[in-house]
Amino acid sequence: MTTHTTLTRRQFALLTAGGMMAPTALRAAAYREITWDDLIPPGTPYSEIIGEGDRDEVNDTWAPIFDENGAKLNESLDGQVIKMPGYILPLESGTEGVTEFILVPYVGACIHVPPPPPNQLVFATTTQPWPSDSLWDAIWVTGTMTTNLISTTLGDIGYALDVTDIEIYEW
Asked: In whole angstroms, what is the distance from residue 155 CA to residue 109 CA?
């Protein structure tokens, strides 16, 4: 038997106002905590996303060759609010700090080493700049994820993240 509850406008307004006054931490807790492995589609082993590559001695770069599994994205993450750890590779910064970056799984990814495959890179933007003096720190980022292959000069990126919060990753 299904029971229905009818609320008056006043009761509805009071419930809604109460939700708005709930602590931000309680409302912000509605995220899915993920790891880098979660970016790989289920059933695709990590060992099958990395391919061979060619080193360009003149430009001191590495041109990786990823097989099709390196560009496969976990579509279940599209539109999800997530929280994940990583490191910042800055793309856009101002006097306040970094506002656009690539979130990478390890320090130095994409800099004179083979970049990770597209499904291991996240293009992130934030309106709350991250201090430029904290670029080597491991961080947690929270925001809404989009699955979308993006091609940049640093490499192909599989995900985008509209960041709402950045904090130091505590071990």
From this structure: 11
